[in-house]
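2024-03-11 09:14:02 INFO worker-7 job=invfold-0412 stage=load source=structure_tokens
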């Protein structure tokens, strides 16, 4: 399904022009309009899923192989020194466009904005607290 009010639906389906680097029947991969680095790209499914919770399993199973292929090609082509793959779900997690997308972010040793980029502060949980979380999650996964 596509959503009329979703800019990524329009970009993914070619209704709004974008810098497309790859397209197939399920996805369009475009360059981010406000890139964090040279080559920062977004994998957009052509169907609308707001986030990973809504994502179809078949589409999900195709996302990582595509991300891997792009990471290899982009690294070779752009000569980056590393690569981040990032996917935000929900406002608190930094999602600003509510159509599932995966960020492909080439990283360069010499980039001016490397300091503090994509870092978080350690939460400082005790081994007991981590153990309690582990038990809770393990139970639900059975
Ligand atoms: P989020 O914060 O939701 O994970 O990421 C949204 C990303 O989409 C941001 O990096 C932002 O720069 C990018 N973006 C937002 N609107 C547009 C647009 O119209 N075109 C392109 N190419 N990127 C966009
Ligand atoms: Zn959409």
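2024-03-11 09:14:09 INFO worker-7 stage=emit residues=142
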């Amino acid at each position: 399904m596509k959503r009329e009010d979703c800019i990524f639906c329009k970009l993914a389906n070619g209704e709004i022009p974008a810098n497309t680097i790859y397209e197939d029947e399920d996805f369009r991969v475009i360059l981010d309009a406000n890139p964090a680095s040279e080559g920062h790209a977004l994998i957009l499914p052509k169907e609308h899923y707001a986030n990973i919770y809504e994502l179809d399993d078949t589409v999900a199973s195709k996302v990582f192989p595509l991300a891997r292929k792009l990471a290899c090609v982009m690294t070779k082509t752009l000569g980056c020194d590393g690569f981040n793959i990032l996917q935000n779900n929900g406002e608190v997690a930094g999602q600003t466009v509510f159509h599932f997308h995966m960020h492909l972010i080439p990283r360069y040793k010499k980039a001016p904005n490397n300091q503090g980029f994509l870092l978080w502060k350690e939460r400082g949980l005790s081994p007991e607290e981590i153990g309690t979380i582990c038990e809770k999650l393990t139970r639900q996964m059975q």
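2024-03-11 09:14:09 INFO worker-7 stage=report msg="The helical segments are 7-12, 57-78, 127-141."
2024-03-11 09:14:10 INFO worker-7 job finished
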